[in-house]
Amino acid sequence: MKMKLTLLFLLIFLTSNPQENNSLLSAKQIVSKASIRATAENKNIFLTYSASWCGWCKKMAAQINDEKCVALFNREYVFATLVVNETKKNKSLETPGGFEFLTEHKGQNAGLPFWVVLDKKGNLIENSFDPKAQNLGCPVSESELDYFTEKLKKTSNLEENEIKIIIDVFKQKK
Predict the structure, then answer these.
(1) Interval 96-145: pLDDT, tens
(2) Which class is 22-171 in CATH?
């Protein structure tokens, strides 16, 4: 019983706040933490590569966290963010080892935001490239939203009407 309580406490401690500041953690630690939580919750990991200067990154984060979308996304994914490609002034914001993960996911030349969906063990399921190897980033055009829809269907259990809600939010010009 003590072991179960200890494990439960450890799990709660490691996964307590999805909006917490991970700036002191390495990329490996962030992904490992997400993997532990994804395993416990039987979800995939939505890993985003971002930077403080990236307007499209902020737009995508706002859309994912929109009141119409956030519960749907959080039901399906554990979210993690690695900060990469910062300006010289903000290099201290970068996630240690983040660029190596970005390179491993073939996104080093893709632009930001770049994102991947990993299974609970950290294996790549999907990335933000379209069939022409162009980064969808924060999808806005009809074709980008169509590819995004396909990727959501492949990596989640979202219903058609739920995907439509998400796509409608991504279509809004804010």
Answers:
(1) 999 999 999 999 999 999 999 999 999 999 999 999 999 999 999 999 99
(2) alpha beta
